[in-house]
């Protein structure tokens, strides 16, 4: 499902290249930082996946979710909202026994709820365009000097959170929504000392 290599501004990192302060030396984390985080994503299916993954992160570290992403893709059939929306209560109970995912009852149930809300939205609008409308349809390029300047939420994230909750979504608080905006390139928050900053400000 990843197509980061086909997106603009994705030159590889030189050995020892400086990265954002939140990125550890874990190779999985570094690959995600270098190829996905902050890159504009417009594909509705991938936006749905990332919205749910950010919700799964609530109370946990992102690397925990990232390392379980492939298993999530397996059990949710590529994050197919039609499949997820129709899962039975018995299927959800079975998921709670799967060590490859985050076995939190509310999050497992919430994924089904969010799939149902996504499909309802898709009946009346393009969910991807709707999500991007909260930043005016184009990436907001920030120019933060260091991690301490990067916000954990914004007015736009608060507005998205409120609208998603009204549409029936769960695990979509404003902090989660801002993390989602960062992950999907709706906002570009690579700091100026990061090698990706120069690449993505050219996009």
Concise synopsis of the structure shown:
This protein is mostly helical and 203 residues long. The protein has 11 helices and 2 strands; from the N terminus they run ααααααααβααβα. α2 runs antiparallel to α7 and α2 (44-56) packs across α10.
Structure description:
- With 203 residues, the chain is mainly alpha-helical.
- The protein has a single domain (26-200), classed as Hypothetical protein, domain 2 (Endonuclease III, domain 1, Orthogonal Bundle).
- The chain is built from 11 helices and 2 strands; from the N terminus they run H-H-H-H-H-H-H-H-E-H-H-E-H.
- It has helices at residues 27-35, 44-56, 62-66, 69-75, 81-85, 89-95, 105-122, 127-132, 155-166, 174-183, 195-200; strands spanning 140-141, 187-188.
- The chain has a two-stranded parallel sheet with strand order 1-2.
- It is globular.
- It starts with 26 loop residues before the first helix and ends with a helix.
């Amino acid at each position: 499902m990843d197509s980061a290599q086909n997106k603009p501004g994705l030159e590889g990192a030189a050995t020892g290249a400086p990265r954002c302060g939140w990125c550890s030396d874990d190779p999985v984390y570094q690959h995600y930082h270098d190829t996905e985080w902050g890159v504009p994503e417009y594909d509705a299916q991938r936006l749905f996946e990332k919205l749910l993954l950010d919700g799964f992160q609530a109370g946990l570290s992102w690397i925990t979710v990232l390392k379980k992403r492939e298993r999530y893709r397996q059990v949710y059939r590529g994050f197919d909202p039609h499949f997820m929306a129709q899962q039975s209560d018995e299927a959800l109970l079975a998921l709670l026994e799967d060590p490859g995912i985050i076995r939190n009852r509310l999050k497992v149930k919430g994924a089904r709820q969010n799939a149902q809300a996504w499909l309802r939205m898709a009946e009346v609008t393009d969910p991807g365009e709707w999500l991007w409308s909260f930043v005016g349809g184009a990436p907001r390029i920030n120019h933060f000097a260091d991690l301490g300047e990067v916000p954990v939420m914004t007015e736009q994230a608060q507005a998205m959170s409120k609208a998603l909750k009204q549409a029936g979504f769960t695990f979509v608080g404003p902090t989660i929504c801002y993390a989602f905006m960062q992950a999907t390139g709706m906002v570009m928050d690579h700091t100026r000392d990061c090698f990706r900053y120069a690449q993505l400000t050219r996009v």
